[in-house]
Amino acid sequence: MAEVYINHHPLVQHKITRLRDKTTGTNEFRSLVEEIGMLMGYEALSDLPTEEIEIETPLEVTPSPVIAGRKLAVVPILRAGLGMVSGIQALVPTAKVGHIGLYRDPETHEPIEYYCKLPSPIEERVIVVTDPMLATGGSACDALKLIKQHGGRKIKFMCIIAAPEGLERLKKEHPDVQIYVGHLDRQLNENAYILPGLGDAGDRIFGTK
Ligand code: PRP
Ligand code: URA
């Protein structure tokens, strides 16, 4: 059974409200996506394994925890997932970054893959996949399938807004993935856009149309 964490933090909810506002411009939108990436990343990484090392404070020698094992991998789904990466890098500057390029066909809404480059070895890393929008779930499910084909095992998926349809699909197809959601919205419209949503995340982050 997939673990799903729906965020209720007032700071995250406040920033999501700013994102939804159609008058919020590209500059502010990009900063908000980065900040939400950091706040949600803080929550999603709370179960990272640690190990004790011995260090010397100015007063004495003491055991103290550090992050154990191979460092994190962050894998944004292009384009919009890129916006969340710097927020997570602010928390874990040593994280490696992979990229998966997918776009939705405007007619069928099916994801089309155009790029995949992942840090190696991927097997032992905790992998955080980022995409602000989980709509039908097609892009997220395909990205997770690709990562698993490359050997990825410990995977977390982080989105800012999810539609119930996409969340159900993701839980069903990838029950082993931990899912972090900033806000669960009402439904998809006839064009598979999330309602109330925030519009096209990629266009709003990068100022395209
Ligand atoms: C958006 C979004 C997700 C996808 C979600 O990307 O960033 O990747 O749609 O929809 P789904 O759950 O129905 O697959 P888009 O295809 O618009 O590409 P872009 O980020 O390059 O604009
Ligand atoms: N992709 C977006 O950017 N927004 C949506 O509402 C759905 C898919």
Which helices and strands occur, and which strands form pairs?
Blueprint: E1 4-6, H1 10-20, H2 26-44, E2 50-56, E3 61-67, E4 73-78, H3 85-91, E5 96-97, E6 99-104, E7 111-117, E8 126-130, E9 133-134, H4 138-149, E10 154-162, H5 164-173, E11 178-184, E12 187-188, E13 194-195, H6 201-206
Parallel strand pairs: 1-11, 4-5, 4-6, 4-8, 8-10, 9-10, 10-11
Antiparallel strand pairs: 2-3, 6-7, 12-13
Bound molecules: 1-O-pyrophosphono-5-O-phosphono-alpha-D-ribofuranose and uracil (URA).
1-O-pyrophosphono-5-O-phosphono-alpha-D-ribofuranose binds at residues 77-80, 103-104, 109, 111, 131-140, 166, 192, 200-202.
Helix proportion range: 25-40%
Average residue pLDDT: 96
What gross morphology would you assign? globular
Please give the CATH architecture: 3-Layer(aba) Sandwich
Coarse structural class: alpha/beta
Bound molecules: 1-O-pyrophosphono-5-O-phosphono-alpha-D-ribofuranose, uracil
Summed up, the helix count is: 6
Q: Termini separation (Å)?
A: 38 Å
Overall number of domains:
1
Cα-atom radius of gyration: 18 Å
Top CATH class: Alpha Beta
Low-confidence stretches: none
Strand tally is 13
The CATH topology turns out to be Rossmann fold
Main beta sheet strand tally, sense and closure: 9 strands, mixed
Query: Which series of helices and strands comes N to C?
Result: EHHEEEHEEEEEHEHEEEH
Beta-strand content bin: 25-35%
What is the compact description of this entry?
With 209 residues, the protein is of the alpha/beta class. Helices cover 31% and strands 31% of the residues.
Report on this model:
This protein has helices at 10-20, 26-44, 85-91, 138-149, 164-173, 201-206, and strands at residues 4-6, 50-56, 61-67, 73-78, 96-97, 99-104, 111-117, 126-130, 133-134, 154-162, 178-184, 187-188, 194-195. The protein is α/β, with parallel strands linked by helices and 209 residues long. The strands form 3 sheets. Strands 1, 4, 5, 6, 7, 8, 9, 10 and 11 form a 9-stranded mixed beta sheet that branches. Strand 12 (187-188) and strand 13 (194-195) form a beta hairpin. The protein has one domain (4-46, 72-206): Rossmann fold (3-Layer(aba) Sandwich). It is globular. The structure holds 1-O-pyrophosphono-5-O-phosphono-alpha-D-ribofuranose and uracil. Uracil binds next to helix 6.
